[in-house]
Backbone:
């Protein structure tokens, strides 16, 4: 009983010791055998019951059960995995049997299966121990059968390749070099289709085969290398053009505009060097296109800035003219000084622009009138002139998609109906938006000057509509 109590105590300490589940399992099995040996040593002939105290037996049995439950998940999982591997090995053997029964099976498939069987026999510990001996015998038997079949397959492949070598040798005497190269390529495809033989002989056969074909490809290789070098040089030249264009894009905006001729020459060189034939997703082509787009964007920006400055000058000239005419009407005795003040503030003329010419001519006309006394500078204030200002503003607001004053709602509706009727009848051919806006802008500066209060109201509407329209035109162009 003392020995039994010590056994129970030792088993109870198992949970505190980091033992492998197999070690725990063996320890439990040894303990039960020892317990049974103790029972047998105490059993006398004729005894119906064991002599061990029932409490000790229950304690021993419960301790064994508890220890086994600790390792049971591991044992069950391992048993499941080993069973799965066993099914895989059996499936592999079944597949091998079908492969061996197929007389037309390719050598490559036989070799692949041979490698799989080799892996399986090296990993027998992955299946249940009771099945390892039988499985190993079945695998070795199938490996022996495969070895024989693979040997026969290698011999057949070697015979095919020897025949291809004889054909390759005959090509070296061909007079038609181009035809010989085509046949050589065909022989190479047949060599690949023949499959792989034994490693010892296959490499030697390949070297002999290539020895007959290599001279045929030498000239072709040299030609290819020359084309490759020429292509490399062409690519380097194309890169230089990209660098040149990128360096221009780094200049200031005013300096970039002066490089337009050079950029045109770069684009011509790019076309000559075959840049336009590059694939649209080619990195070099994308780089050149991006540099070109940046340059064009810079030109548009420069043009936009120039147009903004021109419009600023037009607005200033228009304002100066209105102020001058108002002063001349109110204080004719100070006409000369008022004109000189205006002339001193007058922006430089842009002779190439029609609106500049128009405004400059108005100033000259005033100067001429000042020389012819008596002079009269009455501002227009008739209803017809007011209506012209109103209609022009309504048209610009309609084109820009802006609202108009509520008081002019009917006038705007009449204008829209009139435009629609003209479009449907073909009576008027509408210009593109940019051209129509340009015409309307010119018409504004052609209108006679009216009283300052009235004109300021229309000027504000005119400038707002023009700004919106120019924004739309620029966005559409980009």
Residues:
């Amino acid at each position: 009983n003392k020995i039994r109590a010590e056994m129970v105590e030792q088993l109870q300490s198992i949970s505190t010791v980091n033992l492998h589940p197999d070690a725990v399992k063996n320890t439990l099995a040894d303990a039960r055998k020892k317990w049974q040996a103790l029972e047998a040593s105490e059993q006398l002939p004729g005894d119906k019951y064991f002599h061990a105290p029932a409490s000790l037996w229950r304690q021993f049995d419960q301790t064994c059960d508890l220890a086994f439950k600790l390792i049971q998940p591991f044992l069950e999982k391992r048993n499941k995995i080993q069973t799965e591997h066993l099914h895989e090995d059996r499936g592999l053997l079944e597949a091998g049997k079908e492969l061996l029964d197929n007389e037309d099976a390719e050598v490559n498939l036989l070799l692949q299966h041979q490698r799989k069987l080799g892996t399986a026999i090296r990993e027998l510990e992955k299946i249940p121990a009771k099945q390892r001996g039988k499985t190993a015998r079945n695998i070795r038997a199938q490996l022996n059968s495969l070895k024989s079949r693979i040997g026969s397959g290698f011999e057949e492949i070697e015979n095919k390749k020897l025949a291809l070598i004889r054909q390759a040798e005959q090509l070296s005497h061909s007079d038609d070099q181009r035809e010989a190269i085509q046949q050589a390529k065909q022989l190479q495809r047949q060599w690949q289709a023949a499959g792989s033989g034994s490693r010892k002989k296959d490499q030697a056969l390949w070297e002999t085969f290539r020895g007959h074909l290599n001279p045929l490809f030498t000239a072709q290789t040299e030609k290819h290398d020359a084309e490759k070098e020429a292509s490399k040089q062409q690519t380097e030249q194309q890169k230089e053009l990209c660098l040149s264009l990128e360096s221009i894009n780094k200049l200031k905006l005013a300096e970039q505009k002066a490089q337009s001729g050079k950029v045109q020459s770069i684009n011509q060189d790019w076309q000559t060097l075959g840049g336009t034939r590059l694939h649209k997703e080619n990195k070099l082509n994308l780089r050149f296109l991006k540099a070109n787009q940046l340059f064009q964007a810079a030109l548009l920006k420069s043009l936009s800035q120039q147009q903004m400055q021109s419009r600023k000058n037009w607005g200033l000239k228009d304002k100066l003219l209105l102020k001058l005419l108002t002063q001349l009407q109110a204080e004719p005795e100070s006409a000369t000084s008022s004109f000189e003040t205006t002339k001193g503030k007058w922006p430089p003329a842009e002779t190439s622009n029609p609106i500049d010419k128009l405004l400059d001519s108005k100033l000259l006309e005033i100067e001429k009138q000042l020389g012819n006394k008596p002079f009269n500078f009455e501002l227009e204030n008739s209803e017809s002139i007011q209506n012209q200002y109103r209609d022009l503003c309504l048209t610009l607001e309609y084109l820009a998609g802006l609202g108009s004053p509520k008081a002019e709602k009917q006038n705007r509706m009449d204008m829209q109906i009139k435009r629609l009727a003209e479009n449907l009848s073909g009576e008027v051919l509408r210009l593109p938006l940019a051209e129509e806006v340009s015409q309307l802008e010119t018409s504004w500066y052609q209108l006679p000057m009216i009283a300052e209060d009235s004109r300021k109201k229309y000027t504000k509407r005119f400038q707002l509509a023009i700004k919106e329209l120019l924004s739309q035109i620029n966005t559409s162009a980009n």
Q: What stands out?
A: The chain has a mean pLDDT of 85. DSSP finds 16 helices and no strands in the chain.
